[in-house]
Amino acid sequence: MKKIIALALIAVLSLSILSGCSQSKDDKKIVVGASTTPHAEILEIAKEVLAAKGFELVVKEFTDYVQPNVALESGELDANYFQHKPHMDDFNAEKKANLVSVAAIHYEPLGLYPGKTKSLDDLKDGAQIAIPGDTTNGARALLLLEANGLIKVDTDAGFAATANDIVENPKNLKILEIEAAQLARSLSDVDMAVINGNYAIQADLNALTDALAKEEQDSSSADHYKNIVAVKAGQEESEKTKALVEALQSDEVREFIVEKYKGAVVSMD
Q: DSSP string covering 199-234, please?
């Protein structure tokens, strides 16, 4: 009987030790959802910074703008890094989610890229311009067109503007709303397209060198649409969150962004 009790105690202690080791390992693993470019690439540099501090960074890549937030809200992720705050706020409102921003890391200027028409001066009456089909980036695209004198948007609409808020359209431009991920592929079918920074980079386009017009770094859009790290409410001060933010704001990451993207991605100081 004593032998059985001793064996049972050993088994319990072994399970406790294994459980403790597993718990400790989990406490040092940070699972982050990200767009492939540039976010996952940037996280690879942050991974090295985190490893030096004892953390394991696991990056899960997504190709759309919905699932990374779904995964974060469900608890599958510790954080995500792919979006700006207006997009996150829209997701929270629509899905009754509780995601919060903990840091602004970089800014990706939106660019107006040539398709069939190669310059703004050659843009003809009735030309087709494709813009992102999601609400926040669609408004952003319209404001870029307005900044370059192509249309005028109702001032009351601001960052919530849609094509219905265009009050002046002297060239009778046809605004086509297309899923953001498909915009680069649609360039040959339209006169011009306003493309999100991450999808432009994937298509080997750089807003600084290839776009006919882009959002400027000192514009209201640049401030409004900074890319953020998002976590579930209540995790803002967790050890994992603080470590992740510190790594993404490190000199190593800033230097990588400058050297790799050459103005297509701008690190926030």
A: HHHHTT--TTTT-SEE--TTSHHHHHT-EEEEEETT
